[in-house]
Design brief:
This protein is an alpha+beta fold. The protein is built from three helices and five strands; from the N terminus they run H-E-E-H-E-E-E-H. Helix 1 packs antiparallel against helix 3. Pfam families: DUF7522.
């Protein structure tokens, strides 16, 4: 489902910061809002048969989580990491849009680096 608020410039910038930060460990990159989503990048060695609707529905729960943790003594929400046997899902939400990336196993500091880069791009988007 294509997202109407996604500009070519935002798409290019998100792909660039994720590829620069993660390199060949980046498996996929998906942009989403409450009403739509678009997979922006899929590494060439991966199958295009993933159930994106299911993944996106789960990542959209982050919009509610932001409200839940909004006044927490932990500080402001930054990003979420989910750990799997063969890789990770990292989600960043800013306002009414978000991105999740799937990656091969990476050192923990690289997750913070990519989340910070994504957040900077999403915060700078005027959509």
């Amino acid at each position: 489902m294509t997202v109407s608020s996604l500009t070519d410039e935002l798409e290019d910038e998100l792909i660039s910061v994720c590829r620069t930060t993660i390199g060949d460990g980046l498996r996929s990159l998906t942009y989403f809002t409450a009403n739509g989503h678009e997979q922006l990048y899929l590494r060439s060695d991966l199958e295009r048969d993933a159930d994106l609707e299911r993944f996106v529905a789960n990542e959209r729960l982050g919009f509610t989580s932001q409200q839940t943790y909004g006044d927490s003594e932990l500080g402001e929400y930054e990003f979420t990491i989910r750990v799997f046997e063969w890789g990770y899902v990292t989600r960043v939400i800013v306002g009414d849009h978000g991105v999740y990336v799937t990656t091969d196993p990476l050192p923990m500091d690289e997750f913070h680096e990519v989340a910070t880069a994504i957040r900077t791009v999403l915060e700078g988007d005027d959509s």
